[in-house]
Amino acid sequence: MDTHVHFVLYGEFDECNRFVHEYIRRTSMYIQTRHGERNKLDKVAISHQTVDNDLYLKTVICYVVKNAPAGGLPYMAYDYPWSSGPLYFRLSGSWSSPAWTMPSVLNYYLSGKSGRSAKRVLKTHEKGLDDVLMKDGIIFPGEYVAVKVVERLFKTCKSYNYFLCKTREDDVDAKGGSISHLTIPMREMRQYKNELCKEMFGVSGIKSLDSAKRLRLAKALRARYNSSVKQIVRLCGLVYDEVKTRIT
């Protein structure tokens, strides 16, 4: 998503926490290199919740896979390129197969590069990564997603499709997560947010607004569009707990 990212991670909390912070650090480096914006993700909010049984694990996986279409993006759950959804229960070699299942497409390995070039691409000094598969400048998700584990968890394609259909965002909220239902897609809400900024403060965006004005904007978004706390936090650049106590 262009506003947030979800990971379903397996490991001890300290390991998972280090991974998420390293992901943020590397993404921030990329943004600086590509767009010249320093410390872009310094204040990004991180939240987590424990997945403690198989039923909830299935629910969370399907929630993440469905996140893009639920947020209003024009993709099917199994077509969104920044998701693991396209990896599960796919049959290669037929006309309906995604292009990445074709051997002739996934033919770029780091083994074709010198050791120094490979380290530069992956931004790491780790060894043993010479055969990492890449496509369109990114590491192929099949390299790091535990596809077979997920397929064994669901057992059948029928079960996977059943959970995709039945999983609701409320199922994740009820477990104690901080993910709220987005009543209006983010793309539309950004437009409404900018219109409100113009109406209330005479500016076209939130960059020049202090915290007090952002909170006023948050209350207006809540009152006018019934926006969720999570959505308002993303739109207004505020802290989740502060918004929750002020507008609910």
Give your account of this protein's structure.
The chain is an all-alpha fold and 248 residues long. The chain folds into 3 domains: 1-48, no CATH class; 53-178, no CATH class; 186-247. Helix content is 47%, strand content 3%. The chain contains 11 helices and 3 strands. The protein has helices at 13-35, 54-65, 67-70, 115-122, 147-154, 157-166, 169-173, 186-201, 211-225, 229-236, 240-247; strands at 108-109, 133-135, 138-139. It has a 3-stranded antiparallel β-sheet with strand order 1-2-3, with no helix packed on it. Strand 2 and strand 3 (138-139) form a beta hairpin. Helix 8 (186-201) crosses helix 9, helix 9 (211-225) crosses helix 10 (229-236) and helix 10 crosses helix 11. The radius of gyration is 20 Å and the shape is globular. The two termini are 26 Å apart.
Which key phrases capture this entry?
248 residues, mainly alpha, 3 domains, 11 helices
Measure the end-to-end span.
26 Å
Number of E-state strands: 3
Principal-axes geometry comes out as globular
Query: How helical, in percent, are the residues?
Result: 40-55%
What is the helix tally? 11
Question: Ranges with pLDDT <50 over ≥5 residues?
Answer: 177-183
- The tally of domains stands at 3
Radius of gyration: 20 Å
H/E series: HHHEHEEHHHHHHH
Main β sheet profile:
3 strands, antiparallel
Strand order of the largest sheet: 1-2-3
Structural class: mainly alpha
